[in-house]
Design a protein that fits this description.
Low-confidence stretches of chain B: none
Largest sheet of chain B: 7 strands, mixed
Order of helices and strands of chain A: HEEEEEHEEEEEEHEHEHEEHEHEHE
Structural class of chain B: alpha+beta
Oligomer: heterodimer
Strand content of chain B: 15-25%
Strand content of chain A: 25-35%
Radius of gyration of chain B: 27 Å
Helix content of chain B: 25-40%
Structural class of chain A: alpha/beta
Number of helices of chain B: 19
Low-confidence stretches of chain A: none
Distance between the termini of chain A: 36 Å
Strand order of the largest sheet of chain A: 7-8-9-10-11-17-18
Mean pLDDT of chain B: 91
Largest sheet of chain A: 7 strands, mixed
Number of helices of chain A: 8
Distance between the termini of chain B: 55 Å
């Protein structure tokens, strides 16, 4: 069987004809397999959804219980058959519940990576390497300029700044699912045990993480009617909230932003970020290329991000590669 | 090197001027010589590394990585120094071993064209990404850290507890790494003596006329002159060396050979740099702008935009310091000196006859030429004092132009204003009944008014583009802003064809329907 017969890009997303299912479809379909809970991968309105238990929970939190007609829980590492196609979910290390999906038929193995990272994260299971013939990789940070430094160093910068500017409120911008909780976890493991104020939009997901046994410490709300003196405090919120009226309650705010994009100085500067922290839930260039090598895949298909550069790297390294143009994934959100 | 790299990163990301000043002062205190001196040289664009050209950087990186991968990276990042700093292979020879800024500078400074590539790559191998960025910025010039040489000097003044004028005065006699300057600022040595011929002298500035300033003053005590819309310059010549300085002491001689070349005098003249042919042909500031901020100037440019200096004060005559003499006396000496200078390039700023403040006020508001922006008042008996002393000199500007414009777009502010839409683009009506943007202003209103406009913007948003919102603005509904501005230039960059100088919001006209706002043709009439 040719790889293109087992999985192929369609307008709605990556489609498997023999199994009649889509992976991370960008519009409503009959049967969807979902790698993780980020909004551009997990959409509401499918007739049936298969995903890990955590991803299903997160979708229910975000979209309400009726987010899909029916749901099926995928157990990590356990193969199931869908229309003669073997399907197995493996941890991707991206956010809580995130998975890669192995699709096999007649001995042909294709792994859809979803979004992934290789370094350890206190808030989700680590990436598991799955050998395969075809590896479909993300490319969010698919340029040699993207090298994420050690997380501890980046957290250290923030802690130092909090100590240096006790009169200012540190406003840390991060993506609501995954990044926010990971930052809190990292801060706690670096010895920061003060309350971390969180924007209302983050509260439910943080609570959910805590019900899953992930310790996040005291997280009082930053969106309350009560007057709180935020000087010297750390507040976590979505960057989009930083431009709204919510911001006005903070005296002399110092804007911090945790994202892989912060590697580019002028980009941080343009966004008005004073303290950029290079912390990402995606693989950096070295991890992307290392993973491609380690899977042993002879063919690589590259999706969402900077496809050209990763395809070029594969070509230089004797691996057949092509971009897989699927529209609808939002590579800016991190 | 680490400290300098860190300083550069912090300066790049700190938007506030005071924040930058604090970073610079802290750096000067914590860093030893000669490192801090080389940093200062880099920040004030006084570091010359002639052996290393940007092309060398490109060649070096392409020896180390695939050209196509480099091209994708450069495309994305958009800055050569930053791209190369990020993709340079880590863990080269001697990586992590300490390397001082001074060492780097000294090595690169003495590098010849042939050994520059090897020296630069050895330096890059030893540094981390941030250090590499700093070095590559030194090499390519232009640190892009948002620090002017004026700001750097201000930080030095703060660091040493001296007036910035004192630093400007000796600046051109000093050289990197500025050891004697720092020793003086730290109080361990005397103020450096200037050995430079034709040094800069800190200038005397005027205060604006406010409130009832003039009521207590006798008109006969004052000399009045037109206030010309050029730039303040100082021309100084001694022992065959002639230099032209800006008011902050930057040497701009190279861009104005038509002023500096072939004049024979000894002394220091204070005046206004203008474009045109004196006495009557004086062109606008827009014409002068064509000649500013250039390293050199073509013969064609000197012909189409000839510069001249309208002189109003004499600080030195030969070796003789006239600054303690009265203005009246200085002007007499100046007049005599100018008689011996080429009249096409130098003339005396004429004084205005007036008998009372009322008469001067009329002159101020109806100047004979558009390039005049008001009048200057100087006490006849005033001595020349550096800085902005209160009392002897006044500037009395023409009342600003005012138009009613309609708010079209609003952009979010930064810092204290984050969370508010505080930068406003406004427009006026064209013949076919459309609004065309004519300017942008972000001050002139009170905090209370800011909140009111912000509320209006949020409630009447039509579209959003990132940090910008367009707001409802049609003849029957919208917000009219009274905008004050100092002048108008022709502009090919703006759709409206005009660019305002120094626009600010002077009043909110909630009462006025947008249909009654001004039309483009009334602005165009001001250009004539």
């Amino acid at each position: 069987m040719r790889a293109e017969e087992l999985l192929q890009p369609r307008p709605a997303g990556l489609y498997c004809p023999p199994g009649d299912f889509y992976i991370d479809p960008v519009r409503a379909v009959d049967r969807a397999l979902v790698t993780h809970g980020h909004a551009d991968h997990a959409r509401a309105g499918h007739r049936s959804v298969m995903a890990t238990r955590e991803t299903l929970d997160i979708m229910a939190i975000r979209y309400g219980d009726g987010f899909a007609g029916s749901r099926q829980t995928a157990l990590p590492g356990q193969a199931v058959r869908i229309g003669g196609v073997g399907v197995t979910f493996f941890p991707a290390g991206h956010v809580l519940g995130s998975a890669q999906i192995l699709v096999e038929r007649d001995g042909l193995r294709i792994v859809v990576s979803g979004d992934y990272k290789r370094r350890s994260d206190p808030t989700c299971s680590g990436f598991e390497l799955v050998p395969c013939d075809v590896f479909i990789t993300e490319a969010t940070f698919g340029l040699p300029v993207f090298v994420h430094p050690d997380d501890g160093e980046e957290i250290g910068k923030l802690l130092q700044s909090i100590a240096d500017f006790p009169g200012r409120t540190h406003l840390l911008g991060a993506y609501a699912l995954g990044k926010a909780q990971r930052l809190i976890g990292l801060l706690r493991s670096c010895g920061y045990h003060e309350p971390i104020y969180v924007h209302g939009a983050f509260a439910r997901l943080c609570e959910y993480y805590q019900t899953q046994g992930i310790e996040l410490g005291a997280l009082p709300p930053a969106t309350t009617g009560e007057k709180v003196d935020f000087a010297g405090k750390l507040v976590l919120g979505s960057p989009s909230a930083f431009s709204g009226p919510w911001m006005r309650r903070f005296a002399d705010p110092l804007i911090c932003y945790a994202s892989g994009w912060m590697r580019i100085r002028q980009r941080a500067r343009q966004q008005g970020v004073e303290l950029p922290m290079i912390i990402s839930d995606h693989a950096d260039w070295r991890e992307l290329t290392q993973t491609i090598r380690e899977t042993g895949a002879q063919k690589v298909w590259v999706t969402h991000g900077r496809e050209e550069a990763l395809v070029r790297w594969c070509t230089l390294n004797g691996i057949s590669a092509r971009p897989l143009n699927i529209v609808g994934y939002d590579d800016e959100s991190e | 090197m680490k400290r300098f790299a860190q300083l550069l990163d912090l300066l790049t990301l700190t938007p506030a001027r005071n924040g930058k000043l604090a970073l610079l002062t802290a750096y000067f205190s914590a860093t030893a010589d000669p490192d801090r001196g080389y940093a200062l040289a880099a920040l004030t664009s006084n570091l010359d590394l002639p052996g290393v050209k940007p092309a060398v950087i490109r060649t070096l990186i392409l020896e180390r990585m695939d050209p196509e991968l480099f091209a994708y990276s450069y495309d994305f990042v958009g800055d050569l120094a930053e791209t190369v700093s990020l993709v340079w292979p880590e863990g080269g020879r001697g990586a992590g071993a300490p390397l001082s800024l001074a060492k780097v500078v000294e090595r690169l400074r003495t590098a010849s064209r042939t050994d520059a590539p090897a020296i630069l790559s050895a330096v890059l191998d030893r540094l981390d990404a941030s250090g590499r960025y700093a070095v590559l910025k030194l090499v390519t010039g232009g640190l892009r850290a948002g620090v002017s040489s004026r700001l750097a000097k201000q930080a030095l003044a703060q660091f040493g507890g001296v007036d910035v004028g004192e630093i400007e005065e000796i600046w051109h006699g000093l050289e990197p790494p500025y050891i004697e300057l720092f020793s003086w600022l730290e109080g361990t040595a005397r103020k450096p003596e200037i050995r430079l011929a034709a040094p800069f002298r800190p200038v005397m500035l005027a205060n604006p006329v406010t409130g009832r300033d003039l009521e207590q003053l006798a008109p006969s005590d004052f000399l009045a002159e037109w206030k010309w819309d050029g730039i303040r310059v100082q021309l100084t010549s001694a022992r065959g060396t002639t230099r032209l300085y800006s008011r902050t002491g930057d040497d701009i001689s190279a861009a104005f050979p038509d002023i500096v070349g072939g004049v024979e005098f000894d002394g220091t003249i204070d005046g206004e740099l203008l474009i045109g042919r004196p006495p009557d042909d004086v062109r606008t500031f827009a014409d002068l702008q064509q000649r500013l901020n250039r390293k050199t100037v073509t013969a064609g440019m000197q012909k189409s935009h000839p510069a001249f200096m309208r002189c109003y004060d004499l600080l030195f005559e030969g070796e003789r310091d006239l600054r303690e003499e009265t203005l009246q006396r200085r002007r007499e000496r100046l007049k005599l000196m100018l008689e011996r200078m080429p009249p096409g390039r130098f003339d005396l700023s004429p004084t205005l006859g007036f008998s009372g403040w009322d008469e001067l006020e009329r002159l101020r508001n109806e100047p004979p030429q558009p390039v005049i922006e008001g009048v200057m008042l100087k006490r006849r008996d005033s001595v020349y004092t550096a800085g902005r002393p209160k009392g002897p000199w006044f500037k009395w500007k023409r009342d600003p132009f005012v138009i009613d414009a309609v708010l079209m777009y609003a952009q979010r502010g930064h810092g204290k204003r984050s969370g508010y839409y505080s930068d406003y683009t406004f427009g006026v009506w064209t013949d076919d009944g459309k609004l065309v943007p004519v300017g942008k202003a972000y001050f002139g209103f009170t905090d209370e008014e800011l909140r009111e406009i912000d509320r209006f913007v949020r409630e009447n948003t039509v579209e959003r583009y990132g940090p910008v919102r367009s707001v409802r603005a049609d003849p029957s509904f919208g917000l009219v802003l009274e905008v004050a501005f100092e002048g108008l230039n022709r502009s090919s960059r703006h759709k409206s064809g005009v660019a305002m100088r120094f626009p600010r919001i002077s009043r909110l006209r909630w009462d006025k329907p947008p249909a009654e706002a001004d039309r483009l043709e009334s602005l165009q009439a001001l250009l004539a």
